[in-house]
Amino acid sequence: MTGSLTIAGLGPGDTALITPEVSTALAEATDVLGYAAYVARVGPREGLRLHPSDNRMELQRAGEALKLAAEGRNVVVVSSGDPGVFAMAAAVFEALEDAPELQDLSIRVLPGVTAMLAAAARAGAPLGHDFCAINLSDNLKPWTVIEKRLRLAAEADFAIAIYNPRSTSRPDGLARALEILGNAGCADRTIIFARAVTTPKERIETMSLREARPEMADMTTLVIVGNSATRRIGRWVYAPRRAS
Amino acid sequence: MTGSLTIAGLGPGDTALITPEVSTALAEATDVLGYAAYVARVGPREGLRLHPSDNRMELQRAGEALKLAAEGRNVVVVSSGDPGVFAMAAAVFEALEDAPELQDLSIRVLPGVTAMLAAAARAGAPLGHDFCAINLSDNLKPWTVIEKRLRLAAEADFAIAIYNPRSTSRPDGLARALEILGNAGCADRTIIFARAVTTPKERIETMSLREARPEMADMTTLVIVGNSATRRIGRWVYAPRRAS
Known about the structure:
homodimer, alpha/beta, five-stranded mixed sheet, 7 helices, elongated
């Protein structure tokens, strides 16, 4: 009996943004593992075991998924957005590295629409020119690394997608990031707070960085800071194809 | 008669990666515009006019799409991958800025799976930590800007997704980028050449940056340079969740 492990992205929230590839994988799964809020997006079905777990349990969850697959189950680990962007895929490969006896297991990663792409689409095209993505909540990453990356991203004039701007692990991360970017010459840049994108609670707010306040973001918000050439037309924000 | 303009991403190639949202938009369209190779991915159907155009015609195509929508047509502009990442969305908003009389037009951007996410998924999870995306082919962007961004991205220890590494507009771009990154201390980093991802011609090659040669990339290749902590296990490449 040969099992398999699929690491799949559910997209930002709307079921119309789940790729058919991922829907097929879920239809064929015997076991679905993930953070409880994401597992809840997978409908129950006869023959399917759901394994919801806590948000901070990535490595344990990855190990459990590998174990179930090795036992012959067809396992899908779900992430919101894309599983390779600040999500479960890295944790699974970390667990795999610690389990050399499982390295011939059938593993697939199925991409999804990550939050910054959905947020950018709602706002216009703020990521139409070179950009970077920085995760503020990752508590395995020292704050000095984040600070350095924010400064260099400002100097490079990248548009900057900020994932997890407000998290329990780093509640003051966004306040500090806004201050760093302001001091790095980005006070007049356009900033977008994209909350709960593609869900009924969606709200998009656009302003200059100097007007931004950390409490404008919650746990479901993705923040995009435009590059220095970013323009606004009515409700739309876009990065011109010409370099700033 | 009210028209609409939808800017939609077809994903990297495989139809199983086109979101249902985009499929619905295509089913309701009266007109589809885009680069010929992408329009060819949309099946012909009665009542649907296909408007293929040349690769370098972004702004003219955007203007034509706005004009058709203003005439009452349901227009879809298609891009490969995600329309907001080095693709048509920015060109449409640029054209819209030049046409103030059309700024009340019904416009939507529908996100898609951009090439770097599909390439990363095939390789493992090289974008599991902070990363950036740089387009080498954009001939509206001076090379000095690209060079500066590559140097700062190396210093920030971002994983780096390189779009359009070999283009007719900048055939030597990748050779110069590899040299810049090598000189910036990245010679031992892992590099992934992901060619024609999710199509029958897909080929994934992984090596150290010092072993990479520009001719390993063609027009359909997406290149990912790992960060300094990136690890390989068998055929998989991943960015550990811990910072380098």
